[in-house]
Write a structure and sequence with these properties.
The structure is a single chain. By secondary structure, the protein is of the alpha/beta class. The chain has a single domain, classed as Maf protein (Alpha-Beta Complex), CATH 3.90.950.20. Helices cover about 45% and strands about 20% of the residues. A 5-stranded mixed sheet has the order 2-1-3-4-5, with helices on both faces. α2 links the parallel β1 and β2. α1 runs parallel beside α6. The longest helix is centred in the C-terminal third of the chain and has 24 residues. The termini are far apart. The mean pLDDT is about 95.
Length: about 170
């Protein structure tokens, strides 16, 4: 299972790849509350490849800060593929970055439903040409779910960078 050290190592790897490719990353985080940006900024020199991070925990902040349409949140819910994709695209639109990652989910212990149980997380990655998304059902307590989410988000950034190399 992912832990703080795993997250730190992934942030280092992500930073190295972004530095090599001369690309900048932005984040839009809901359920992780800035954990991805924190892991990144724990690394000295991250300002060379991390452009900015948005913590959009409330629905209103998703709309005001990165332009997620309120109707989309009402129709699909904040924890949805549509909102995750709009968050990633909004983080790009409102930054100078070339890549963005977004996460929205139910970290627990409350807040889950039958349709979206605790541990449901939507991820989206965008590079101004394409946006991809994925959902996962993660297990563990609130902190474990948040760490797993942040780690998987960075793995997705690495995968996106590897795809662009191919």
């Amino acid at each position: 299972m992912d832990n703080d050290n795993t997250l730190h190592q992934l942030a280092i790897r992500t930073g190295n790849r972004l530095r090599e490719t001369r690309l900048m990353l932005s984040t839009a985080e809901s359920c992780t509350g800035g954990m991805i940006a924190s892991a990144i900024t724990d690394i000295s020199g991250s300002s060379g490849w991390f452009e900015r991070g948005y913590v959009t925990y409330s629905n209103q902040s998703k709309t005001e800060m990165i332009g997620v349409p309120p109707e989309m949140i009402e129709r699909h819910g904040a924890v949805s593929e549509a909102v995750a994709r709009a968050m990633a695209e909004g983080a790009l639109r409102n930054s100078r970055a070339q890549l963005a990652v977004a996460v929205t989910g139910v970290a627990g212990p409350g807040g889950g439903s039958e349709a979206k149980p605790v541990g449901t997380v939507w991820f989206a990655w965008s590079d101004r040409v394409r946006t991809s998304s994925q959902t996962m059902l993660l297990k563990g307590d609130r902190r474990q779910i948040r760490i797993q989410t942040a780690a998987h988000a960075l793995r997705g950034v690495l995968a996106m960078l590897e795809e662009s190399d191919a």
